[in-house]
Every structure is written in structure tokens, then in C-alpha cells.
Amino acid sequence: MAVGYGLLDWRQGGKVANLTNAYFDPVTGDGKGFFADTAKSAARIKRNSTLGTSYLEDAGFVKLREVQLGWEVPSRFANRVRAQSLNIAFVARNLHTWTDFPNYDPENAANAGNGGQGYDMGALPTLRSIGLNVTIVP
């Protein structure tokens, strides 16, 4: 018998200050991206109050957090390995994020402290994991 399970996570609304793009924005107009003049970029951010609204991004998303597909092996096969029951399952976590946020993940923040929440500053994406789960009942 096959069994499946999935977990979708959804958030609508909220804003994230995109400090990654604010800092590395090509303000020189030469289109070099990460090679932009960071001193000019920092000056522009300071000039626009603290950040301005040009770098506020929608933090809404839909995430496929977990998928598990399992198969209960028939008892005649489980008995061959001296087991009462045998279950094999494919498990995957953090498979995909659907969002308009331009960087990896709108949930990532600069840090978890009081001053860093709601700011994206070059955070790495959430790790994806894929595995196989085997449950044997002797």
C-alpha cells in the first residue's frame, strides 16, 4: 500500500528590506552588478533616509516544505528478511519556493536578533534535503 504526505506553507503580505540589492545595486550605470561602486551605493542609501521604499520587497510566498511517499512492502517480501513489516519511504524537504522576492528566500533574515529581522543581507537559501527512510519491524 502506498502512502503520501505533503506540506505546503503560505504567507501573504509583509515586507522585507532587500539590503542585498541596496548594497550591490549598480549605481554607476555600467551594469556590472556586484562590481558596482559600493561607496556610491552606500551614500545613496543614506541619502534616501535609511533605505527608502525602492528596496522594500513583498515577502509573500508559497513553499513546498515536505513531501513523503511511502510504500508498505507486502508481508510475503518482508518475511524474506525476517521482518513482520517493512516500509520504504522517499522523504524530501524544502523542495521549492514560489515568490516574487528577487533573492533566495523572503524568510531569511540578517540575524534573529531584534535589529536584524525583516532585512535580507546576502542570506544563503534554505537547504534542500532528500532521503530514504526504511522502517523494519522485526
Question: Would you mind describing this structure in some detail?
Answer:
The chain is mainly β. The protein has one domain (2-137). 14% of the residues lie in helices and 40% in strands. It contains 3 helices and 7 strands, in the order E-E-H-H-E-E-H-E-E-E. It has a 4-stranded antiparallel β-sheet. The longest helix is centred in the first third of the chain and has 10 residues, at 38-47. The radius of gyration is 23 Å and the shape is elongated. The model has no long low-confidence stretch (mean pLDDT 79).
Number of strands: 7
Number of helices: 3
Task: Specify Rg, calculated over alpha carbons.
Answer: 23 Å
User: How is the largest sheet built, in terms of strand order?
Assistant: 1-4-5-7
Number of domains: 1
Mean pLDDT: 79
What's the helix-strand series?
A: EEHHEEHEEE
Largest sheet, in brief, is: 4 strands, antiparallel
Shape: elongated
Which percent bin holds the helix content?
10-25%
Query: Low-confidence segments, ≥5 residues, pLDDT <50?
Result: none
Structural class: mainly beta
Termini separation comes to 19 Å
Fraction of residues in β-strands? 35-45%
Descriptive keywords:
single chain, 138 residues, mainly beta, 4-stranded antiparallel β-sheet, 7 strands
Helix-strand blueprint:
Layout: E1 2-11, E2 15-18, H1 19-24, H2 38-47, E3 56-58, E4 61-73, H3 75-78, E5 85-98, E6 119-120, E7 129-137
Parallel strand pairs: 2-6
Antiparallel strand pairs: 1-4, 2-3, 4-5, 5-7
